[in-house]
């Protein structure tokens, strides 16, 4: 009789979907349905991301970020080299302008005092300009480096010769020599004779 009183408010509603090992039932107690088994099922059905997948995704994201960063750096490096190259060209242009001051035949028409002042100013500016170091190196092998040195030596020798012979009225001859050097660098469209030795080195 007591047993009937204890269980009279309980009834089995229906079996829940579960594994055969843990068969659960919804139990109604005074109109309340226990859904604890459903909560357990929902938690079992939630997606679990494997650790390896998380790690692989993280590595892929990092790799993509690094590649993007390096692409941006490469663009900035090229811009830097381009800007430095322009500065280097500007420096060479200024050096040539200042170096040609003393080569100008019109300078001989001035008085000695004026020539000295102009020469001193040009020398001062030339030294200041040369003090600016702008270097953009181009990778070269040993043979290319030697050829570049030979070309620079030929140009320097020609410039020095022009300075020495300026007072001997041989400026036109040296202009022709420089023109042959330039033509050697433009073999497809030369404007006159070519300096073969210079072309071989270039």
TrEMBL record:
The keyword Transmembrane helix is assigned to this record: no
Coiled coil: 63-97, 141-179
GO biological process: protein stabilization
InterPro entries reported for this sequence: BAG2
Molecular function via GO: adenyl-nucleotide exchange factor activity; protein-folding chaperone binding
Gene3D superfamilies: 1.20.58.890
Protein name: BAG domain-containing protein
Keyword Coiled coil in record: yes
Keywords assigned by UniProt, alphabetized: Coiled coil
Taxonomic lineage: Eukaryota, Metazoa, Ecdysozoa, Nematoda, Chromadorea
């Amino acid at each position: 009789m007591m047993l009937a009183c204890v269980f009279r408010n309980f009834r089995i509603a229906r079996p829940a979907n579960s594994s055969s090992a843990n068969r659960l039932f919804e139990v109604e107690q005074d109109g309340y349905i226990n859904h604890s088994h459903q909560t357990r099922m929902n938690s079992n059905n939630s997606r679990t991301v494997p650790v390896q997948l998380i790690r692989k995704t993280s590595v892929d994201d990092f790799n993509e970020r690094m590649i993007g960063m390096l692409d941006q750096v490469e663009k900035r490096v090229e811009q830097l080299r381009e800007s430095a190259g322009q500065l280097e060209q500007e420096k060479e242009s200024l050096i040539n302008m200042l170096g040609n001051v003393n080569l100008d035949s019109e300078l001989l028409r001035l008085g000695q005092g004026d020539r000295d002042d102009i020469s001193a100013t040009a020398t001062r500016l030339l030294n200041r300009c040369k003090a600016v170091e702008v270097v953009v190196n181009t990778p070269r092998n040993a043979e290319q480096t030697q050829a570049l040195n030979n070309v620079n030596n030929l140009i320097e020798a020609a410039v020095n010769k022009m300075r020495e012979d300026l007072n001997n009225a041989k400026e036109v001859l040296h202009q022709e020599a420089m023109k042959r050097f330039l033509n050697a660098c433009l073999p497809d469209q030369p404007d006159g004779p070519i300096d073969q030795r210079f072309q071989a080195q270039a």
